[in-house]
Amino acid sequence: MTPEQFNIGLQDKLLGQVRLALAAQHHLNAGGSITLTSGIVSAQPIRDGANATSVNAALEGFVRAAALELLPRGLRINVVSPNVLIESMAAYVPYFPGFEAVSAQRTALAFQRAVEGIQSGETITVW
C-alpha cells in the first residue's frame, strides 16, 4: 500500500464521517443522536487491512471522545461496528476467512439502538 492509497481510507471513511458529525452537531436539538459506522476489523484485523483497521479504530476513538464534548449540549454519538454482512459476503469472502457473517436485519437493530437508545460514546458491536 502506498501513502496515497492509505490516505483514501482516511479521507473517505474516517474524515468523511468525522466531518459529517462535526456538521450535524450544529443542526440537532438536545436529545439528538449521531451514529457512525466502523467494522469488526477495528478489533480483528484482516489480511491487507491495515488501512481498514486504522480507520475503524480511529472512528471508535473519535466517538468515545466526542461523546464527552457533546454531553453538555444533550447530544449523543455512537458507532455501530458490524461484522461482514451475509448479504455482501460473496464479494468479501477472500478477506474474511473463518468469519461468521451477520445479517443486515440484525445490524439494523444495532443502528436503531444507537439512534433511539440512551447510550453515548459506545461502540455497538454486531459480531
UniProtKB/TrEMBL annotation:
UniProt cross-references to NCBIfam families, sorted A to Z: PRK07578.1
Keyword Oxidoreductase among UniProt keywords: yes
Q: What is this protein called?
A: Short chain dehydrogenase
Query: Can you tell me which family this protein belongs to?
Result: Belongs to the short-chain dehydrogenases/reductases (SDR) family.
InterPro entries linked: NAD(P)-bd_dom_sf, SDR_DHRS6-like, SDR_fam
Q: Which Pfam families match?
A: adh_short_C2
Q: Which UniProt keywords apply?
A: Oxidoreductase
- Record SUPFAM superfamilies: NAD(P)-binding Rossmann-fold domains (SSF51735)
Coiled-coil region(s) at which residues? none
Q: Which PANTHER family match?
A: DIHYDROANTICAPSIN 7-DEHYDROGENASE
Does Nucleus appear among the keywords? no
Q: List the source organism.
A: Rhizopus delemar
Q: GO: which molecular function terms?
A: oxidoreductase activity
